[in-house]
Amino acid sequence: MNFKDNFSYFKNNSQEIYFDSAATSIKFDKVIQAQSDYDLKIGANTHNNLFNNAYKANEMLNDTRIKIAKFIGIEDKNEIIFTSGTTHSLNQLAFGMRNYLKANDEILVTKLEHSSNLLPWMVLAQEEKLKLDYLELNENFLIDVSKIKNKVTKKTKVISFAMNSNTIAGLNDVKKIVKEIRKLNKNIIIVLDLAQSIKQNKISIKDLDVDCVAFSAHKIYGPFGLGILWARKEILEFLKPIFYGGGNNTSIGINNYKLAPIPEKFEAGTLNLSAIYAFNICLDVLEDLKIDKMIAYEEELKKYFRSKVKKIDHSKFEFYNLENDQPIVLFNLKNVNSQDFGAFLNKKYNISVRVGKHCSRLANELFKVSSTIRASFSIYNTKEDIDKFIEALKDCDNWVNEIL
Fold first, then answer.
1. Rounded to two decimals, what is the model's pTM?
2. Distance CA 301, CA 102 (A)
3. Per-residue model confidence as pLDDT tens digits over 237-284
4. Which residue numbers delimit the Aminotransferase class V domain (predicted)?
5. Would residue 282 show up in a list of annotated catalytic residues for this protein?
């Protein structure tokens, strides 16, 4: 199967080698078409069933919740909340807990977290006089399960971490981590950031036993502007919405109001319905292509890169995660500004990579660098793309002349 046939983007950008899928994936053709189809053929808003297309909109919304619930392995579709992205979802979780958390309660994260899974908790801790602390990592920059006990106390209320980060990308053993946390304090709310993992790993929330997850459609070949928040019903019951308005109330008096039931409680205003419909179709495509095969293909690309790079003189490079199988390569050319080498890759070889701090500033402190280069592979990449990448790395001595 040629996965690339599902992406007309590359017909319009035939020379580009796109290695920035950790930032956003290229969209399936059917996703792009579906987003247009919704506006052309349905076009209506939800919250009204009195005319045909409004009825279709509501049916589509319900059907999409059902598909997402199946995709991530949960039973109750009404625990699925639509947001604008992972950032929105994690902010909703954090700031929705204001009334649940009390002064001196503790929140644990890691230093590898994306800003979207760090800053909401940090700001909440500062504003509500909570304690924010960091789980210890092992030599592979994974959560050290044996040292969780050093951080968890009776006051620990929330632990939030990524299944795998957007930098080092190593896969945390979520089941072991959750089991250890539950053993130490069964009342802790465990939040899992799946922004990177949703494409790279088959997810079953029931097996993982976490309490909340967040991810974005655009990370898994879907549309921009759509995020998913899932949380256990008992958490959604006490969680406060961070937005209020049309659609998330059932009554309003002069000085009082009544919130709508879950999930509408958290979906004030008009949802991004064309994106939701497009993600509905995206899930169909994922099922047709088989997520297991897609994951295996991406891992094979990483293994192929690893085998190839070890055959060349790569002493001038610093690789930070070469040995794991997640399809991200984080590296630097020693003694060279990462921005300059990223520009060289693009200008001479038309290779698109991400350069900088990757919205994970504390991670750079762990690596003791100011910025890094990140190449991330996906199903539309090929071994020929990897070969070109290796050729570019071998050509590193010429980077200065190429960008001047």
1. 0.96
2. 47
3. 999 999 999 999 999 999 999 999 999 999 999 999 999 999 999 999
4. 17-389
5. no
